[in-house]
């Protein structure tokens, strides 16, 4: 298949999130007259708000989980944000950030993923992609993206697909086993939170998807994939080897699917000349030292992927020992597959 890379890692904040969050921040300042932007989430969310606030000439405060790396905190402070470290995960950081914003009449809380302005901003990724591919080229066989925290990125991609009139093009939506809120919700037929998020992919740190995500998945063909942390780490390493580009583990999760044969197993009718769009979402929380650590901890990981009602396991690319086991059913539709920026 022809793999086209949408390189969102070259955004000013090294992450796709500047599209949606930047759009939300701009509207908050220009239409809601915000004089102070407040947010919570991972470093990419914070960076998007900090960068936007600096461009809009207003202060920014970012509530960050205490487990965030020193490098992330330094990046935020370099961009002019005030960083507040919180003991706990995304939920605790959000509660404290909202409370802080409520006490400041000039502040607006910028949600990391659950807001229509965020989704509309992310949708520009697809409409821009269609322009780049040209009207004379048929729609791609599939678009592969990570779900994003709470499904915010997926919501935007699906909205962009509608605007581009790619209504039947399936979206392969990837998350990790330790943050698989989309899969849990599809299996349950309702928003079902992850009991405890446990993944190196910090950009998947929200416990639950939005209701809008579940609604979109009932109206558009979405194929959910969940991969292991080891596969996500390995995806980062292989992408760095292939393209000399560093991306964080959240992005690596999506890339890992391309580096295995599992997509072909799930979509056997994918033509050999089909176009597969891969959203390289990027991420700022990555370094050479982290890649080296990934190599020590996750060298040559087994392939363990859950998609819909099947679990695929392969202990090496040289092994034919692939098994599939039935799991809880999920309501999904199917079908996906040159390399370009």
From TrEMBL:
Organism: Thamnocephalis sphaerospora
Gene3D superfamilies: 3.40.50.1100
One MF term in the entry's GO annotations: threonine deaminase activity
GO term, biological process aspect, one: isoleucine biosynthetic process
Co-factor requirement: pyridoxal 5'-phosphate
Database matches in Pfam families: PALP
EC number: 4.3.1.17
Enzyme class: lyase
Occurrences of domain Tryptophan synthase beta chain-like PALP (ranges): 2-282
Keywords for this protein: Lyase, Pyridoxal phosphate
Protein name per the record: L-serine ammonia-lyase
Catalysed reaction equations from the record: L-serine = pyruvate + NH4(+)
Keyword Oxidoreductase attributed: no
Family under the similarity heading: Belongs to the serine/threonine dehydratase family.
Keyword Lyase: yes
């Amino acid at each position: 298949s022809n793999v086209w890379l949408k390189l969102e890692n070259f955004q000013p904040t090294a992450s796709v999130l500047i599209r949606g969050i930047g759009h939300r921040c701009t509207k908050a300042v220009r239409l809601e007259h915000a004089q102070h932007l407040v947010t919570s989430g991972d470093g990419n969310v914070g960076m998007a708000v900090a960068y936007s606030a600096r461009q809009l000439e207003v202060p920014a405060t970012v509530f960050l989980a205490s487990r965030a790396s020193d490098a992330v905190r330094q990046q935020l402070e370099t961009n002019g944000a005030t960083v507040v470290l919180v003991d706990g995960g995304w939920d605790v950081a959000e509660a404290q950030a909202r409370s802080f914003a409520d006490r400041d009449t000039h502040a607006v809380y910028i949600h990391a993923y659950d807001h229509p302005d965020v989704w509309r901003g992310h949708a520009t990724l697809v409409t821009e992609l269609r322009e780049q591919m040209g009207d004379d080229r048929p729609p791609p066989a599939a678009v592969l993206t990570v779900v994003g925290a709470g499904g915010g990125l997926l919501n935007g991609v699906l909205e962009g697909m509608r605007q581009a009139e790619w209504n039947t093009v399936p979206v392969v939506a990837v998350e990790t086993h330790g943050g698989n809120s989309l899969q849990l919700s599809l299996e349950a037929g309702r928003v079902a939170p992850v009991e405890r998020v446990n993944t190196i992919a910090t950009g998947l740190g929200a416990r639950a998807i939005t209701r809008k995500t579940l609604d979109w998945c009932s109206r558009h063909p979405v194929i959910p994939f969940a991969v292991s942390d080891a596969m996500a780490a390995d995806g980062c390493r292989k992408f760095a080897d292939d393209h000399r580009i560093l991306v964080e583990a959240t992005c690596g999760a999506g890339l890992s699917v391309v580096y295995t044969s599992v997509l072909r197993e799930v979509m056997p009718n994918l033509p050999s000349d089909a176009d597969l769009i891969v959203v390289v979402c990027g991420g700022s929380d990555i370094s050479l030292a982290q890649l080296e650590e990934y190599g020590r901890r996750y060298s040559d990981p087994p392939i363990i992927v859950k998609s819909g009602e099947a679990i695929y396991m392969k202990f090496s690319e040289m092994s034919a020992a692939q098994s599939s086991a039935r799991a809880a059913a999920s309501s999904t539709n199917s079908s996906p597959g040159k390399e370009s920026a």
